[in-house]
Amino acid sequence: MKQTKLFLILLVLSLILVGCTKEPEVPQTSTPVEPVQQQEQVQEQEQEQEQNMSVSRDGVDYYDKFGVVQSEDTVTVVDSLDHEVTIPKQPKKVAILYNSYLSLWDLMGGDVVAVVEQADEKPVEGLDHAEVIGKPTDPNIEKILEIEPDFCVLTPVSANKELAARLNEMGIPTIYMEGRKKDDYYKVVRLFSALLEDESMFEKYALDIEEEIQQILAKVPEAEPQKILLMMSTAKGVTVRNNQSLNGEMLADLHTVNIADNAVSGDRSEVFSMEQIVQEDPDVIFVTEMGSDLEAIAQKRQEMLENDPVWGELSAVKNGRYHILPKDLFTYRPNQYYPEAYSILAKHLYPDIFGE
Fold first, then answer.
1. Which position has the higher pLDDT, 38 or 145?
2. What is the CATH number of the domain that holds 77?
3. Do 197 and 225 share a structural domain?
4. What is the pLDDT of residue 245?
5. Per-chain mean pLDDT for the chain
6. Is the dihedral angle over the CA atoms 207, 210, 212, 215 positive or is it negative?
7. β-bridge mates for residue 132, sequence order
C-alpha cells in the first residue's frame, strides 16, 4: 500500500516538472503587423488624400493658390502682365471694361460706373446708369482719367497692354487678366470675392463649379483618345486652335488629342490646309464662330470647307460628328456655365455615356 502511494506521488511530481519546462505559446493576433515600408506607403496615401481634399474644398489653401493677398482694407493681385496691383476693398467707382468679367462682377453683386460697348448677343442687364466709354479693344482713356475709378479691368487684348501700364502709373488700380484657362477664371472669382468681402461667392462660383466639372470628367473613359480638330470661323476665314486655348483646355480634359497642336504655337489661330486635315482625318470636328454677322460667317465656311468634295469624305463629317458650338459658351467665357460647356462637349465625344 505504501509502495502504491509512493508511486502515485512520484508520478504527479513528474507531470508537474514536464508542465513547467513546456515553452509558452505566443498569442496570435487577429491582424498581422504591417512591414514598416507598407505602413509608410499607407501614411503617404492618407496625407495625399487629405491634401487633395484641402485643395478642393478648404478655403485657406485654395485661396492661397491664386496669389490674392488681403490686408484689412486692400487686396493685392499679380495680373497677367506681372503687374502687382493693390485695390481697395469695397471699391466705390469701378470700371469693368471687359464684358466677360463684367457679367461675373455683376453676378457676384458688384456695381460699376463705367463699361464698354456690349455685344447684342450677351448683354448684362440693369447697367443703364453706367457710362459707356468706348469699345472693349479701344476704351476712351480720357474718360477713364475723368472718372478716376478706384478699380479698373481691361479687356485682355494686345492693344490694351500699354494702357494697363499707363493707368497703373497714374495711380488707377488696373488689371489685365487673361482668361485662357479655368484657373484664370477661378483667380478672377477669388479676386472679386475678396474685394466684395464675400467668400461665399468663391465657394459658389469656383469651388462648386470645379466639383461639377470633376464629376463630369470622372465618367470619361480611359480608352484610346479621340482625334479632334478645333476650328474658329469668322467672316474673313477659318483657322484652327490648339489645346492652349480656352476650348482646347476643355477638350484636353475630356481625353482628346488635337491634331492642330503641333501646327499652332501659343494661344493663337493658324491656317490649316485641307491636305493636313485629310491626312489626319479627325474623329470629331468642333467649330466656334466669332463675329456678329452669322450669315457671312457661314458663307465663308462653306466656301473654304463645306463646298470642297474632300470635306464630305472626312470621317467626322460622314459620321455626323462635325459640330458648330454655341457662341454664348464657347466664344464668350463660359464663367459660371463651365459645367454646361463641358457637358456639351462630353455629349458630342461620348454619346453612349453622356447621351446626345
1. 145
2. 3.40.50.1980
3. no
4. 85
5. 84
6. negative
7. 115
HSE-up of 18 (CA within 13 Å, CB side)? 6
Whether residues 228 and 99 share a domain: the answer is: no
Supply 71's cell numbers: 490686408
pTM: 0.80
Contact call for residues 239 and 261 (beta carbons, < 8 A): no
Domain assignment present for residue 162? The answer is yes
Look at residue 11 and tell me if it is in a domain: no
Q: Is residue 149 pLDDT above 70, yes or no?
A: yes
- What integer pLDDT is reported at residue 304 of this predicted model? 93
Shortest CA distance to 336 belongs to which of 197, 182, 191?
182
> If you compute the radius of gyration of the chain from its CA atoms, what whole number of angstroms results?
32
3-class secondary structure per residue, 101-169: HHHHHHHCCCCCCEECCCCCCCCCCCCCCCEECEECCEECHHHHHHHCCCEEEECCCHHHHHHHHHHHH
pLDDT for residue 264: 60
